[in-house]
Design a protein that fits this description.
heterodimer; A: mainly alpha; Arp2/3 complex 21 kDa subunit ARPC3; about 65% helix; about 0% strand; globular; B: alpha+beta; mini-chromosome maintenance (MCM) complex, domain 2; 2 domains; four-stranded antiparallel beta sheet; three-stranded antiparallel beta sheet
């Protein structure tokens, strides 16, 4: 075999981020396969991975995994650079920002469910803001806000419970195998 | 499973439930209209209170559109336009509701205490 002239050296942290992102992308696929009554309402299971990564390895790694997921999943679904992609990106950036801010909440009293719900609301707020200012500049869009908010609440709780379940148990193979330097 | 919900989490969930309830309440509790704004060719023709029952005749390029105000509601009763969209719109009740007779350049819009959104400017 001819050796490639381009050598990309990757650290074990890179591998670790890639492995987590792969898990998140897989869950995005599950998301996309579930039919929903209103376009835009999705369970967002990939965020379970983000929450676990945030808890174990900190914000920087979580941001990497989250953004990699958005880009890679959009390439998989063929939606790269489409409006849906920018909505997903805006949602991911908003929820990352809210997760960054929620770092100030004391860990003793606020668990994964809090972070998940907060991130879900930030996600939908960011998406609605982008949709309003860029795609549909009509106030009628906000008539959908209660339904989006309800979905954010329900799926925020569900994902938060899942994340705390997997954070506590040692069942998640691969997510905690590689220590990060 | 429930054990993993910490006290602060309950607080966040409770606050979110109130927020969602507030959003739903805002949609279903539509603003009661107080005034009706009748426009002709983009200019304000008349702005009248919905308290008094009356009829307003608005002359346009095709003829006269007749706006009826009755019991806090308003509608376009007659219009010379070919499609009669604004007549079929029926009674307008809530602030922000509007009927537009485009061929005759007449529009009727209900205004509330505060303007919820401007349906005519988009």
């Amino acid at each position: 075999m001819i050796r490639s002239t381009i050598e990309i050296s990757s650290t074990s942290e890179d591998h670790h981020v890639a492995r987590c992102a792969a898990a998140a992308i897989g869950l995005s696929l599950v998301d996309a396969a579930i039919p929903t009554p209103i376009p835009g309402i999705k369970p967002g299971f990939a965020n379970i991975v983000i929450l676990i990564v945030l808890e174990r390895y900190g914000f920087r790694t979580a941001a990497w995994v989250s953004l990699l997921r958005v880009f890679a999943a959009s390439l998989l679904f063929g939606s790269f650079l489409s409006p849906g992609f920018f909505l997903a990106l805006c949602g991911a950036l908003s929820s990352l920002f809210s997760l960054f801010l929620s770092g100030i909440l004391p860990k003793r009293f606020f668990g994964q469910v809090s972070r998940s719900v907060i991130a879900a609301f930030a996600h939908i707020s960011g998406q609605m803001a982008l949709a309003y200012f860029w795609l549909i500049p009509h106030a009628g869009l906000f008539s959908l806000a209660p339904f989006f908010a309800l979905a954010a609440l329900v799926f925020g709780i569900v994902n938060g419970l899942a994340a705390s379940y997997f954070s506590e148990s040692e069942k998640v193979e691969g997510l905690h195998q590689v220590p990060i330097q | 499973m429930i054990r993993s919900i910490k006290p602060g989490d309950w607080l966040v969930i409770l606050a979110s439930v109130f927020f969602v309830g507030f959003l739903f309440g805002r949609i279903w509790h539509a603003d009661k209209a107080q005034k009706v704004l009748i426009r002709k060719g983009g200019e304000v023709f008349e702005e009248v209170s919905l308290d008094r029952n009356r009829k307003v005749a608005v002359p346009g390029p095709l003829g006269v559109s007749l706006v009826v105000i009755s019991n806090g509601k308003a509608r376009v009763e007659k219009d010379p336009g070919p499609h009669q969209y604004c007549v079929r719109q029926g009674w307008l009740e809530n602030a922000g509701d509007a009927a537009i007779c485009l061929p005759n350049q007449v529009s009727v819009e209900l205004l509330g205490g505060r303007k919820r959104y401007d349906s005519l400017n988009y």
